[in-house]
Amino acid sequence: MRGLTPLKRAAWLATALLWPLAASAQTYPDKPIHLVVPFPPGGVADIIARPVAEKLATTLGQPVIVENRGGATGTIGAAYVAHSAPDGYTLLLGTTNEIAMSPTLYGTLPYDPTKDFAPVAIVAQFPNVLVVGPTVKAATLADLTSQAKAKPKSLTFASSGLGSTNHLTAELYQNEAGVQITHIPYKGGGPALVDLTGGHVDAMFATLPSAVTLIKAGKLHALAVTGDTRSTALPDVPTVKESGLPGVVVTTWNGIIAPAGTPQPVIDRLAQALKQAVEDPGIRQKLAAVGAEPSYTPPPAFAGIIRDDYARWSALIKKAGIKVD
Length: 325
What we know:
Elements: H1 6-27, E1 33-37, H2 44-60, E2 64-68, H3 75-82, E3 90-95, H4 96-105, E4 117-132, H5 141-150, E5 156-159, H6 165-177, E6 182-185, H7 189-197, E7 203-207, H8 208-216, E8 221-225, E9 251-259, H9 264-279, H10 281-289, E10 293-297, H11 299-320
Helix pairs in contact: 2-9, 4-11
Signal peptide: 1-25
Pfam family, one: TctC
Protein name: LacI family transcriptional regulator
């Protein structure tokens, strides 16, 4: 070491620090993996995480333990993973909310979605669905838009909380349709849907998995889905784009994310295992049953989606002046 120049000494030290990670990557995994879901048990993210974790455990030969760390629209769980050891044993079931939306909504967050994570793979995607309650006389999206234009702010839209995907999709709809609606935030999608079915609020851009059972039971009427194409779960319901608002295309993704600095061989091993999981007929059936589209997106493409979604939602949030304290 004494005969080395400062630059060569720094390079040697950096290499030495990476040796333990490289060695562990060769035997990965050799102990249980924790998959953090940044929302409470029973929610959409939790429902998607559990069958994926079960299949991962079979493929990798180690238990994959689902750990719910809910709170602050997913940001508590996301921050925990961002600051965990980058060794592949603590992963995040990330969603559009805490990765692409919340960093702009909150004044400060202890993580940067474009720098502090190593995207592994998207496993499922689903649109929102515009649903109306029993008291609303609207058969189509055009009907609802006409009502909103005739009486500004008279229609109420529920959401699972300020800055949620339900809320921001409604903001996008207002911008595109040129209407004014009244936002009613709830503490979660469940209470919002209960009040919607009871006629206490008029409409909601609900996540499809949370509303599909109520739609099929006839308790809510679906006017449009926000995907780029129609949903296989509701093939008779048109897209918002088909209904005349091409700018309202919103798809929520769920994907596995590791802390930044996780060795590439570990990322590759996880990505391959997730590909097998998403292609498994049993997993596909379980995800489709809740209105989710099984969808494998590899690490580079997933990273690009995060960057694009972050830029898109950041611009909308700033334009609408939405802030969460």
